[in-house]
Amino acid sequence: MNPREPHTHQYIAAFAIATLLFFSGLWFGSYLSDQKLESIGDLENDIRLSTLGSELQYQILEQEPCAASNSTALIKELFEIGSRLDFMESQRGPKDPQVIELKEFYHLLEIRHWLLMRQVKEQCSTNTDLILYFYSNEGDCDKCSEQGTILTYLHRTRPDISIYSFDINIDNPALTALKELFKVRSTPTLIVNDKKFESFTSLEELQSQLS
Amino acid sequence: MNNLFIYIVTYISLFLTCFFLLTYFENRHRLKNPPAKKLYTVTIAVPVYNGAKYLRRTVDSLLALDYPREKLDIIIVDDGSTDDTLRIAKSYEKKGVRVLTQKNAGKGDALNNALKHAKGELFGCLDVDSFVEPNALKEMMGYFDNPKVMAVTPSLKVYHPKTILQRVQAIEFLMGVYLRKAFAFLGSIHVTPGPFTIYRKKFFDKYGGYDNHNLTEDIEIALRIQSHHYLIENAINASVYTMGVSNFKALLRQRLRWYKGFIDNVLNYSHLFSKKYGNLGLFILPSSFLSVLLAVIVVTWGTIRFIGHSFQAFQDLRAINFDLLSLLQKPQLFYISIDPLFILSIIAIALAITTVLIAKKLSQEKQKLKISYIYFMFTYLLLFSFWWIIAMYYRITGKKIRWGGRDL
């Protein structure tokens, strides 16, 4: 038999095996990726419980409300979730519905924590620095990457600062209210201790605003 | 370009790998070379230009072939060397080796010169930077009992790779060993390596000798054989060793010649892209071109992306006065990218390693190549695409390459 003659069954078998391998790989990769997302969900639940605990502690200890103000560990955890969500977003894309859902919940946790910290700051007259950072990752913010790196750097070098980052494209009533409160119209926007910076803010300028 | 394109490329790679593995599986009973019913008379030409350094080893390996000496005709063609080549060549005359001399005119001319004087029913050549294993010729003979077979290719491997580039070539050549056998099973060998491919001499008598105006005369012969509907076989355990090119510039020059030669020849024989030529026309040649095209696109896209990311990373680091240490944190398993593409890449790498291991086993290769796999994995696609881009540039712009004393 002429070896040049195409063996149709061989082409079909190769197609079947390649398809099987391809979809098995896709399924297994997605499964592992989903497991990672689930771990972020678990972390978020832990934070939710911790924040709720802090709020309750704050309400119970009416005589000494400032005892609830030490929440550096919580801020660290929040930041860790933010980093993990960023990583998952880079892996699965900004339009991944599961990532968006987790980010929405994450933003609610951040707002809730920020409100608590602001209340503590006012009533206990502490010098805690609070930074709100509004960014966009839809390709319309050239300077957001640099701004994000500066804030990560600040977080690593000054863990006492509370930094909350928000994706302005997330559609959520609480985030909309926050954006309206500070009239956020562009990215990057920073609210440093209630003072607004509507464009890229350098490390030096940021440091000069901190206590 | 988004991930969809990468998934398509991955799928095509998986399909091709599975197809070739299945080809092996289907033909496993034909892996052994057919026993030789007849030992043909064979002329082996050694074209040499300033090859004094390696000539002795090359000719000695031919003289050490496990083959009846009276059926073996060895011709050294000195292509106008200016070093000690001719003197060394002449020293072999007392051992029955014939020596021809000519003005420097290139390898193709030297081979045609040897063809004119060849006494054998079969004809082959051995480059001066190569040498053969003693069993090589005998292992190839059985295939010539089929009158449709016009050429038999050996397994070409890199001898004792030392530099990174030689190690990369060692794995590349083993992949070539694997693919050439698969192509043989499909009747689709379209490159007959210069060193020690043995041809039936009557093919040259009937259809002319080597095309000495060709950048890759071995590819031209292979395509000419295919276009006349003859067969080319492969004896996977007939080992020929060559010295890998050790420096980047020389390797680029070699690949430029090979790849531009491949493009030129395939375009000259474009009629082979037809169902008349079965697997070769319908699948092997188109998939060769598709693989090159996809590799070039993926690497170009990856390089542009890498440059973009590097620039952004530089900007980011500049914003924090390059205080990189403060950004570092304990490595965490979480940040290792495990997604579908990662899993598919693992599958593809596992299959690629399998193919090299098969080639290593079947060609009875004993050299240790563990480190070479690592160099290969990290550099080959980049090098391969780079060579092809330059070759395409030369082809599109019509730039010439100097080869055999001519601009081709």
3D structure, described in words:
The complex is a heterodimer of chains A (211) and B (408). Chain A is an alpha+beta fold. Chain A folds into two domains: 12-63; 64-208, Glutaredoxin. Chain A is built from six helices and four strands; from the N terminus they run αααβαβαββα. Chain A is elongated, with a radius of gyration of 23 Å. Chain A starts with 7 loop residues before the first helix and ends with a helix. The mean pLDDT of chain A is 87. In chain B, strands 3-2-1-4-7-6-8-5 form an eight-stranded mixed beta sheet, with helices on both faces. In chain B, helix 3 (85-90) links the parallel strand 2 (72-79) and strand 3 (98-102). In chain B, helix 9 packs across helix 12 (370-397). The chains are: A alpha+beta (211), B alpha/beta (408). At the A-B interface, helix 1, helix 2 and helix 4 of A face helix 1, helix 10 and helix 11 of B.
Radius of gyration of chain A: 23 Å
The helix tally of chain A amounts to 6
Mean pLDDT of chain B: 93
Q: Please provide the count of β strands of chain B.
A: 10
Shape of chain A: elongated
What is the CATH topology classification name of the largest domain in chain A? Answer: Glutaredoxin
Estimate nothing, just give the exact number of structural domains of chain A.
2
